[in-house]
Amino acid sequence: MIGYVLVGTNNLAHAGSFYDALLSTIGAERFMEEDNYFIAWARQPGEVSFGVTRPFNKEAATIGNGNMVAIALESPEQVNAFYEKALALGGTCEGAPGFRPEDATKGFYAGYFRDLDGNKLNAFCMVQ
């Protein structure tokens, strides 16, 4: 159902470098871009893609309160590595990786972070 997700940025080059490094850890690469407007990444053609864009109305990009992009991964180890890479690239912690609720030992496992523009993302997996 979802084709792609975009988040806003005020510095396309900076955001592009952040996401090139972060998304390469899960096999995604740039597949579409327009200078000074947007960049999009995917792991394979036809897959849901993720991108950053300067707002079309040329106003400043702002974060959405309550908006979040979730990146589906395969294991807690991948979630941990992705989250740590985001922080190493300058992202900020919004909730360390772990099960939700915190006393669970299976189910929803996620780590939450904000990118360089303040957009909230998480990396998650389901553990049986």
Structure overview:
The protein is built from two helices and eight strands. It has 128 residues and is of the alpha/beta class. It has a single domain, classed as 2,3-Dihydroxybiphenyl 1,2-Dioxygenase, domain 1 (Roll). A four-stranded mixed beta sheet has the order 1-4-3-2, with helices on one face. Strands 5-8-7-6 form a four-stranded mixed beta sheet, with helices on one face. The two termini are 25 Å apart.
CATH topology: 2,3-Dihydroxybiphenyl 1,2-Dioxygenase, domain 1
Look at the structure and name the CATH superfamily: 2,3-Dihydroxybiphenyl 1,2-Dioxygenase, domain 1
**Helix/strand structural class:** alpha/beta
Task: List how many beta strands DSSP finds.
Answer: 8
- In helices, the fraction of residues equals 10-25%
Q: In a nutshell, what does this entry contain?
A:
The protein has 128 residues and is α/β, with parallel strands linked by helices.
Q: Which terms would index this structure?
A:
128 residues; alpha/beta; 4-stranded mixed sheet; globular
Question: Secondary-structure blueprint of this entry?
Answer:
Layout: E1 4-8, H1 12-24, E2 29-34, E3 38-42, E4 49-53, E5 69-72, H2 76-88, E6 92-99, E7 107-114, E8 120-127
Parallel strand pairs: 1-4, 5-8
Antiparallel strand pairs: 2-3, 3-4, 6-7, 7-8
